[in-house]
Amino acid sequence: MSRREAEITLLVDGRPHRLVVDTRTTLLDALRERLAATSPKKGCDHGQCGACTVLLDGRRVTTCLALAVAHDGAEITTADGLGD
After folding, report:
1. Dihedral sign for Cα atoms in the order 43, 5, 11, 34
2. Which of 20, 33, 59, 70 is 20 to 30 A from 6 via CA?
């Protein structure tokens, strides 16, 4: 692992995931590109449209504005996780 990488753990829709991400990776990109979670959408990239919104530890968060490394250990519920 380089200085620009970090290992994080995320609980997404009830499933644990460990991954190594670049420290500049947004939570949205980690979810979509690394974990294949397609319900959060990439919209405006400015946090205004709400397409990337998930529940993060029970709170509504726009993932395009959140860095993945800042949420190590977080519990994330996407729209897919609400469908059960």
Report:
1. positive
2. 59
Pairwise CA distance, residues 32 & 35, whole Å = 6
* Entry pTM: 0.92
Helices (H), 1-78: 27-29
Helix (H) / strand (E) containing 61: strand 59-62
Among residues 73, 36, 71, the alpha carbon closest in space to that of 63 is found at 71
Q: List phi, psi (to 5°) of 41.
A: -100, 150
User: In whole angstroms, what is the distance from residue 77 CA to residue 60 CA?
Assistant: 10
Cβ atoms < 10 Å from Cβ of 52: 26
